[in-house]
Amino acid sequence: MELPFKYHLPRTGLLVAALLLAGCCPPAQNSCKPTPNSGSATFALSNYPKSGVPRSMFREAHSALLTQPLIGVGDRIGFPLDGGVKLTHVDALEHGVPLNSVAVWITKDVQPDWVPAEALERAAADGVTPVFLMYYFAAENSSEDAQEHRYDWYQYLAEFAAHVSGETPVVILLEPEINDMGAEANGKEPLMYWPGLQEMLMDGLYIVRTIAPNAVVGICFGDFGPEELEPWFGEAVAYSDVVAFQEMRASTRNADLDPTGKDLAQQVLETTKRLHRSFDKPVLLAYLAMSSYQEDGGPEWTQIQALAIQEILGNFKALHAEGLWGMLYFQLRDDPNHVGFFKEAEVDFGLLDELGNPKPAMDAFRQGAEAILYQTPVSEWGNTCNPPAPKPEPEPQPEPTPEPDVIDN
Question: CA–CA distance from 203 to each of 26, 239, 387 (Å)?
Fold first, then answer.
């Protein structure tokens, strides 16, 4: 992969370069949990604080980022419109949607013009934080693929981290739905079963943070797979800043979904609690996706889409209290070329249709975002992962009065 980003790191020198960079840009200290001792043989570990040393939240800019919820839309930096490209966050703002983040998917065939420098500058000027979902292994997610392309993955992360390195924070999430078992359908071993996965993830987190110290880094799970993820990912997540997850629904796969949206809102709550309890990290709903695609004779999914968004954003205070940092809706506009697991419903995930006409879900998202970002004082949002309070200094004790000397006569 030869991408003309700011730095190009030859594969043979990649890990050495990351270590050299670490000398001037040490990893951000950014976990609620103390770093665990680890037996994994990875170059990253010696550069992190040892077990028992509490770590505070990120750099100052990162801590500020976490003082209010992250609310946004995706799924790319901009949509092609009228012969050009309309930045997604600008498109949303022009439709009256308040937001402070934008989700951008980065696959293995990433091209530099997917995230032009001018777009990053405009987002920063508008107070919008990009959330990059690094989707290299995609739905394949097999251990064979990871072992074969491990160093290609390092290169991909290093080059992209260099491209987005700067003064303003970005969020970089590794491998959405990394706990997906889809590889089994192709007769392969799922990625999460590979014993080397946690070491590879720690290397990836370290590479990103070293080259882009402005990055808040994390790992993104699906709301499926094993109930307990800590045995599979706990060691790696300890070196991330946040954990993330997704929720996706459509009539083509979820015909029996509760049409009120309440069951999905409950699922979001339960997943948030489980991840926060397991990993003690801020939790991000990195992409909520509800297709409005209507199957013949089925319930009205345009309304289901709106009600689900309304339920989740309407209950955001309760979610935030359980550790949810923020939520991004998957897609601002319908994409007629989108394909994937949900088959024909993939083209209707947007809050707007292909022509820019708002669906009922747009009003639900706008109202929910306004209540969270504009109508709730920042002081009411506690940090989703506060560092431990420092131990009070012991009060000085008065020196004991010396006993008088006794003179025998």
Answer: 14, 10, 24
Q: If 0-12 CB within 10 Å is exposed, 13-18 middle and 19+ buried, where does residue 378 land? A: exposed
What the block records as the tokens of 230 is 């800590």
Is residue 194 left, alpha or beta, with left meaning phi > 0 and alpha meaning psi from -120 to 50?
beta
What are the φ/ψ torsions at residue 249 (nearest 5 degrees)? -145, 150
What residues does 284 pair with on adjacent strands?
Answer: 244, 326
pLDDT band at residue 308 under the 50/70/90 scheme:
very high
In whole angstroms, what is the distance from residue 82 CA to residue 79 CA? 10
Helix, strand, or coil (residue 117): helix
| 1 has a pLDDT exceeding 60 | no
Among candidate residues 272, 228, 266, the one with its CA nearest the CA of residue 246:
272
Closest to 11 (Cα-Cα) out of 199, 194, 149: 149
Q: Which residues pair with 290 in a beta bridge?
A: 249
CB 255 within 8 A of CB 295: yes
% of the chain exceeding 90 in pLDDT: 57
C-alpha distances out from residue 192 to 13, 144, 146, 231, Å: 27, 11, 10, 10
337-388: per-residue pLDDT in tens? 888 787 887 889 999 999 999 999 999 999 999 999 988 776 676 655 543 3
Q: In angstroms, rounded to a whole number, what is the distance separating the alpha carbons of residues 101 and 233?
A: 27
Burial class (CB in 10 A: 0-12, 13-18, 19+), 394: exposed
Taking only the tens place, the pLDDT of each residue in 229-250 is 999 999 999 989 899 999 999 8
Helix (H) or strand (E) holding 368: helix 360-373
204, 42 contact by CB (below 8 A): no
**Comparing C-alpha atoms, which of 125, 139, 199, 205 is closest to residue 172?**
205
The whole-angstrom separation of Cα 196 and Cα 82 is 47
Cβ neighbours of residue 169 closer than 8 Å, sequence gap 6 or more: 61, 62, 65, 129, 214, 215, 216
* Structure letter (DSSP) for residue 46: G
- At 187, which amino acid appears? G
Cα(308)–Cα(32) distance, integer angstroms = 31
Q: 349, 289 in Cβ contact below 8 A?
A: yes
